[in-house]
Design a protein that fits this description.
Blueprint lengths: L2 H4 L8 H20 L15 H4 L12 H12 L21 H13 L10 H18 L6 E5 L2 H15 L4 H4 L10 E6 L4 H9 L7 E4 L9 H13 L3 E8 L11 H11 L2 E5 L24 E4 L1 H4 L7 E5 L2 H8 L30 H36 L3 E3 L7 E6 L7 H17 L6 E5 L2 E7 L7 H19 L2
Parallel strand pairs: 2-3, 2-4, 4-5, 5-6
Antiparallel strand pairs: 1-7, 6-7, 8-9, 9-11, 10-11
Helix pairs in contact: 5-14, 6-14, 7-9, 7-13, 14-16, 15-16
Bound molecules: pyridoxal-5'-phosphate.
Length: 489
């Protein structure tokens, strides 16, 4: 027998080691979740390069005990973690890796299935399709929408715009775009508040940045549909071919909601694909009183929202819906012999709807989340977040030195310190960036910033399951203290 076949060093680590470490880790995770990350500063305090300088330059040649790996996780990795799962995390969009979501991830990693084909894991495909139907119904999209999971909204929008390009009948799948004299310049429209992922999708699809046209917003940061109309007419007159419009429900900066119903009417009249990016706010539609935000989305050709944003599901999980799954298949399906199965053509093979072949069993964590909280439980939690945001907005509105810079339709508040009347716009911006730095240095809360019409805005997003009114009160105190300090310097 060859030496390799006799080697004792085969197989996975000893089960006893795994079991001991897993129990220890689950205990740690349970404590971490129970504490809402509070024992740690929410924003990592390391300097660039600090974590890597503490790591060996090379992988170990010999096996190391799990105790040593665990110890290094605690002492080297953890200090460089910004705690998105922290009660005080209110930057960008508040998100949560909830208990049920963590359990789903654990199982998914252990099973390690690749759901590229129905055959390669029937449950991965069928659970995904069923859970996506549950979600579609929960947010009130019509039954005609077919849904599947991707990793992020960026990829969902990329796939949607690829489908839009396919639907335009330009033979780009077969002939590509380069060297063609028969292709007019193509155009994708989105508001100037749309997420950068839309422009990135246009770059990736070979449409180029110049293909994106930013439509101005109104006083509440919503796309101006008359300006969209005019832009399409102007482009057509200039020989440019309009391809698609991306409407946003819950823009990244202010969570404004584009007038989707009006935009859908324009798209229908002009024969354009309508993609709706509801990455953050889509979840809110689970609450009947927030359904208004999806008005018109039933007419969209494609629609994305992210359970990993405001639906308590660990990163990553993005739900992409379309009324035209066959168009996605036309854009992407390519089946070599080795991927054919006896069921090909009679079942849904999820590899057919996008670029990637391999697929994680993402639906498992979503299934756990939906079942463990129930839709009523989810509604209660979303409402609690929105109530905390409203309470914070009220505090801003009453504060003599602060001003709110946008409406608060969901759970995000944008505001700034007004600064003394003698301050220039730039000085007000600098004051707010300094205030941001000081608030975040507290370690108790983490907020972010953006630029709005008035200038730099501080951005507070309530969306973590551990956040309570105590964190909001603490945020208010820290802002007050730091602003007083700054103005009295
Ligand atoms: C409206 C909107 N769309 C897309 C994205 C990108 O999401 P992802 O990180 O899932 O690609 C964001 C991120 O905040 C967003 O706010």
């Amino acid at each position: 027998m060859s030496k390799d076949l006799e080697s004792p060093v085969t197989g996975d680590i000893p089960t006893a080691d795994f079991r001991r470490q897993a129990h220890r880790m689950i205990d740690w995770i349970a404590d971490y979740l129970e504490a809402g990350g509070r024992p740690y500063p929410v924003l990592a305090r390391v300097k660039p390069g600090e974590v890597s300088s503490r790591l060996p330059a090379r992988a170990p040649e010999d096996p190391e005990p799990l105790d040593a790996v665990w110890e290094d996780f605690l002492t080297t990795v953890l200090p460089g973690v910004t705690h998105w799962n922290h009660a005080g995390f209110m930057a960008y969009f508040g998100i949560t890796g909830s208990g049920p979501g963590v359990l789903g991830e654990l199982l998914s990693a252990a099973l390690n299935v690749n759901g590229m084909l129905w055959k390669t894991c029937p449950s991965a495909t069928e659970l995904e399709l069923v859970v996506l139907d549950w979600l579609r119904d929960a947010i009130g999209l019509p039954a005609g929408f077919f849904g599947f999971l991707t990793d992020t909204a960026s990829i969902s929008s990329l796939l949607a715009l690829a489908a839009a390009r396919e639907a335009a009948g330009l033979e780009i799948r077969e002939r590509g775009m380069s060297g063609r004299t028969d292709l007019p310049p193509l155009r994708v429209y989105a508001s100037d508040q749309a997420h950068s992922s839309i422009a990135k999708a246009c770059i990736t699809l070979g449409l180029g940045l110049d293909s994106t046209r930013a439509i101005p917003h109104d006083e509440e940061y919503r796309m101006d549909p008359d300006a969209l109309d005019a832009a399409i007419a102007e482009d057509r007159a200039a020989g440019i071919r309009p391809l698609a419009v991306v409407a946003t429900v819950g823009t990244t900066s202010t969570t404004s909601v584009d007038p989707v119903a009006k935009i859908a009417g324009i798209c229908q009249r002009e024969g354009l694909w309508l993609h709706v990016d509801a990455a953050y706010a889509g979840s809110a539609a689970i609450c009947p009183e927030k359904r208004w935000c999806l008005k018109g989305c039933e007419r969209a050709d494609s629609f994305v929202f992210n359970p990993h944003k405001w639906l308590f599901t660990p990163i990553d999980a993005s739900a992409l819906y379309t009324r035209h799954p066959e168009t996605f298949k036309r854009a992407f399906s390519l089946v070599p012999e080795y991927l054919t199965t006896p069921e090909s053509g009679t079942v849904v093979d999820l590899m057919d709807y996008g670029v990637q072949l391999g697929r994680r069993f993402r639906a498992l964590k979503l299934w756990w989340v939906l079942r463990a909280f129930g839709l009523e439980g989810i509604r209660a939690r979303l409402r609690h977040h929105m109530a905390m945001a409203q309470s914070f907005a009220g505090w801003i509105d009453r504060h003599p030195l602060l001003e709110r810079l946008a409406p608060v339709p969901f759970s995000v508040v944008n505001f700034r310190a007004s600064g003394p009347p003698s301050f220039s716009g730039q000085q007000v911006d600098e004051l707010n960036l300094e205030l941001l730095k000081r608030v975040n240095a507290s370690g108790e809360v983490y907020i972010s910033h953006t630029r709005l019409d008035a200038g730099i805005a501080l951005h507070v997003a309530v969306g973590n399951l551990h956040t309570t009114p105590a964190e909001i009160a603490r945020l208010e105190t820290v802002i007050d203290e730091e602003l007083t300090c700054l103005l009295n310097r």
